[in-house]
Amino acid sequence: MEIEEKINAAAAYLLEHTTQRPTIGLVLGSGLGDFADTLTDAVRIPFSQIPNFPVPTAPGHAGALVFGKKQGKDVVVLQGRIHFYEGLPQREITLPVRVLAAIGVKQLILTNAAGGVNMAYHPGDLMLIADHINYSFSNPLIGPNLEGFGPRFPDASDIYTAQLRTAIKSAAAEAGIPLQEGVYMMFSGPSYETPAEIRMARVLGADAVGMSTVPEALVAAHCGLQVVGISCITNMAAGVLPRKLVHEEVMETAARVHDTFQQLLELVLAVI
Ligand code: HPA
Fold first, then answer.
1. How many structural domains are present in the chain?
2. Confidence of residue 60 (pLDDT cuts 50, 70, 90)
3. pTM metric for this prediction
4. Which of 10, 83, 222, 236 is catalytic?
5. What is the sign, positive or negative, of the torsion defined by CA atoms of 267, 268, 269, 270?
6. Parent domain of 81
7. 157 is catalytic
């Protein structure tokens, strides 16, 4: 089946299964999935029921689409995401983003857990993504261009819409939520980076590293969506501290900053 047909079938299924027509989409990263449980009028559709939807295998990624209301806005939440390291091409793991665009979403909020590369960061910090470095050695737009969505050579100079970042930064400052702003660099994973790779990342201008977000942001930009990216710095990246990196630390820090993170998401929904 052609990719356009897959997208159209998934979009048609969603439009049939809910009357909600959100313009804001939200992707919840590792340990951040339960924001979806705070929506009112929630309609939950497991990824496994949506035609052609890839199903996540990573721990902490439930795999459901939740429609509902938050801060007076209609939103649709991707609770759990597919990572490139699970083995599918980036073109396929980003299909849900195109489906959201096909049902009318105009703004996409991407969240993730990330390792801190910037030495001034601390585990538990929240970082607004200003820009990214795609170090995954792939691109979700490789293959025939989907003309119905966007151009062959899309602009990538303002993916994380500057205007939205300005609004979010002032709202966060007003609410007393500390917010870093920096460059997110994607590695494919699933192994964490080596200390040498992290030193390289720092030289290249990265403030945080992670294994997601970039493919979704590129596809969203291709579809003409405005993107907001927020990283939860769950750990200092490899080699910064004299200890090994373990997934448990990522989940523990995500749990610790849970309330502040939710507060920030509410504020983002209020201002965009
Ligand atoms: N590296 C890559 N991905 C991550 C990290 C990290 O240190 N922490 C959370 N996700």
1. 1
2. low
3. 0.96
4. 83
5. positive
6. 3-271
7. no
